[in-house]
Amino acid sequence: MIRGAKQPLTNNLNTLQKHRDITIGRLEKFIQRGEFDDVNLNTVLWKKRSGKAVVLEVFPVPDRKRISFEEAMKGEYKPTNVGEWFGPSFSTFWFKVSIEIPADFEGHQVLFEFDSGTELMIWSTDGVPITGLTGGDNDEDRHVDYLLAENAVAGQKFELCLEMACNGRNGINNTDIPEPDMNKYWQLRMADISVRNKLAQELLMYFKLLLQLVKDTPQEWQINSDALYCGDSIMNAFRLDDDEEEHEGFEMALAEAHGIAVKFFADHQKGGRSLHQIYAIGHCHIDTAWLWPYDETKRKSGRSWARQITFMKRNPNFKFTASQAQQYEWVEQKYPTLFKDMQEFEKKGQFLPVGGTWVEMDCNLTSGESLVRQFLYGQRYFESRFGKRCTVFWLPDTFGYSSQLPQLATSAGMKYFLTQKISWNNINKFPNNTFKWAGLDNTEVLSHFPPADTYSGQCTVGEVLKNVHNHRDKAYSNKSLYLFGNGDGGGGPLYPMIERLEVLGNLEGLPATIQTAGPAEFFKDLEETSRDLVRWKGELYLEFHRGTYTSHGLVKKFNRKSEILLREVEFLSTLVLTNPHKKNSDFTYPASELNRLWKLVLVNQFHDVLPGTSLKLVYDEVMDFYRDVEASGHKLKNDALRALFDTGNLTSNSGLKQAIAVINTTSWPIDATVVELNMSELTPGVELYGSSTWRQCSKDGRALVYVNDLQSGSLQSFALGNKPSEFVPVIVQRIILPSNSSKQTDSDDFIHVTEETGFEIENKFINAKFDQHGRLVSLYDRESQHESIIPDQLGNVFKLFEDIPTGWDAWDIEVFHLQKGWDAKVGLATVEEAGPLRVILKVKHPLTKRSSLEQRIIITAADGMIEFDTKVDWHENRLCLKVEFPLNVNCDFATYETQFGYIQRPTHYNTSWDLARFEVCGHRYADLSEYGFGVALFNDCKYGYSTLGGIMRMSLLRSPKGPDGTTDMEIHNFRYALYPHKGSFLASDVVKKAYQYNEKPIVHPIMINSSLLFNTEFFRVSESNFVLDTVKVAEDPRGSNQNENVDIVLRFYESYGGRGVARVETLFNIKEARFCNILEDLEDHVTIEDNGKTLVIPFGPFKVVSVRLLAVR
Ligand SMILES: [Zn+2]
Predict the structure, then answer these.
(1) pLDDT tens by residue, 968-1016
(2) Distance 549 CA to ligand 1 centre (A)
(3) pTM
(4) What is the CATH number of domain 1017-1112?
(5) Cβ-contact 796, 776 below 8 angstroms
(6) Does residue 397 have an active-site annotation?
(7) Which segments does the entry list as coiled coil (predicted)?
(8) Which residue in 397, 771, 812, 968 is the catalytic one?
């Protein structure tokens, strides 16, 4: 085996984030003598060497005389050897040298090398001085070789004479200053013939220059990083040969290393690669709503883009890029002639659509499916109006980037990504500008953060320099993108900016050239010329604006509820089209209305709207949009439900019984649940309660019904007369808490009670103890036999924190808020409902003088979850309200749901990167697990979490005063739940429970003949980690006859980070099944088994898998 032969390196090894100083140290060692010179370049500078071929005789000239050649020839010569000493200072020795070329030197260029440590002259035997040598250790002085033969012949003989002077080039001490040592002796170190390794010696020369470029040019120069990268690459290519067999590999490696050096110097001739290349593009960031309402943005877009069109007409070299399909649609509707101009200049390559999304959306809070729709609606729009899709995913200003974006952007046809917002980090500087961003599932997108750190460049000399100086990946690329033009409120480039760039474009003295180019052109060039790019894995967490997970709670709640509602409408409407029990030929899938409602949801996900950082004026309009979605969505949902259960031609109720239809839209079964019924929806006279111990009427007069064994993706009917099997009631009792559980808190403001009483609530799954204020003393999980709450601490405690950031009021909650928090005032709990289906403790906390909180703590007979149904009347100034659970779990990281998966973040502040994540975003669940046990916290509309050690906190409300002084000053209703589970997170059903906590079964009262009770399972997915998330009709349904076929899109995701093959059974009669991307483009066929009833779908960790089914209607 040839060890030295070049082995292909894996990608990862070559894409290290290299540490500059360590790399320079490595380079220095490559050419240094001394330590390591048996394994560095020095050891291969010579191919052959022989001392035996050289025979020496010496004649010492007496009395430090300097004699002529002729006199010297008369001297008396005696044999001598390497190792002998010669002196004293300033004396002279003459040598006669006889050399015979050995056989193995035949054909080589042969040198004579003589190092006496002193100066000497080489003479021919007939008295002609040939050349002077200088021996010694100083590399810059040393010259000890003489070319003996260009093409040596074996047996060839050479005779030379040497005149050795016992002094160095600079005297005896090699310096003039001290008194010379007149009795110094020099040892003859070398008298050899040798064959040079020409490539290695040239490489040494190149390598010394590279090291000088690294050390002696300014670090921000392009050539500096290039030289460092080149030296490092040479060392990676270089291999030593240990023995004969490996020699071939060594020669190849040396030639490769030499070639790298040669190419470097060829590429870096004047005007070459050492100039940084800036690609400049005009841009105009228009916030879709922020310090102005949507209606003004319509006019801003028109004004800004019309101006840019005039510049394009004036200057055919000017290019401009604009994102956000929503803004294009507004301009198309409001300014049709301008829109025609935009289309015309798009064709000319000057007006360049970018981004591929509906708006530049928030990516922390939006659901996975919402992100899909941002791309779907965005790309469909661009394609329909410009005949092409965007290739660059563009989000310069969003407050953090989900780890699923690389996969989703790629699925939407975009392999390039741009932002600059991470430069706003207020704790750690992000280490890269050009890199590969790898998502949760390892999909990679080529990413660029413009090093000018702005999307509103002003075309100044300073910004041109910043492009070069601040570029952190110059070793891997010499290109950067520069966005110029006024932004945020629109405007865009001014004409003098364009002119300035043209003047600066090729100016001598600036370390960069500037050319105009569109984003796609830039990324394509970047892709082709960059090398060994560093990889960043996982989310791009913005270390700033952490308050946006919480500010404006109602917007977040409406967004979550709208996402759920539209999912339900799509799911139910698709079922109507495919229900095998009922042909509804009248029913039309509400495609255009769904389209309209989705667009309202999507526009409100803009990166200053959903985060809660816009004016009140904006939110008035935003709430109108959401109310429209809520009302119209519910109408569509009811239309679909009626179509599903229409009793149509039944004219009398005779023989019919009251029942309920329960629809489980999730892809998991539900063991048991308690559903609520509004009595007014039931047929008058229905007997529900009687004396049964397994039924319950709520305090507000609603019927509670226990239903069990709900199948996945199913419609199931339940007659309201049958007792469920295996029913164990939930019970509550008043207890005296043990004295050691009278907990200390930070507050003295208790409402005083005379005895330490509390409540114990128990069902089949858990035993929970609360103190008299509704705070959790103990939560015992009966299956795992674990206690969930840290002993002597309290859960469900409300904490208030002073929340005054250093600026950016609605945006920022700053790290120091954690230093200044206290317990809110508490009230007394009472029992509101006492079982058997449900126990409710009710408590009202005064919180502060201005605000109060009312909570219903709910435990049902159905599962081991404690729900906290919460209402807060909130009127604070720069306070943040959190709820706290001290969980009896030891783990260095907590798990938070993100789009189509989860992300784990530290529960400690070891490093500045850990500390920076003191407040993080999570979706429906956060979980803290150790081996064998864990506790999850669910919510129905909250997103801000912080976990330190075992203390998990959820941020409930903030009270910033800018830019909307009324932010969150209202009544809030939200729910959260605590769920202990056996097994760690990966072994738990947390994903399912959190999902079902949000996607509750839909309950629809029906009248039915008992013989017609139905149980229709539409979907059954064999793998519980593979989630069926979306069921909808395709945007462009196939087939001419819509009455016969339905074109259905199913979207799944893998939720735990595992792989496998799922068998998906459906009731549909499938004609064809194809995989598709998120734009619904058809891809490969899906294997179908069981006569068209079962799809066989392989999947990988965190993969989003979309399938299009053509089903018979
Ligand atoms: Zn913005």
Answers:
(1) 999 999 999 999 999 999 999 999 999 999 999 999 888 877 666 778 8
(2) 17
(3) 0.90
(4) 2.60.40
(5) yes
(6) yes
(7) none
(8) 397
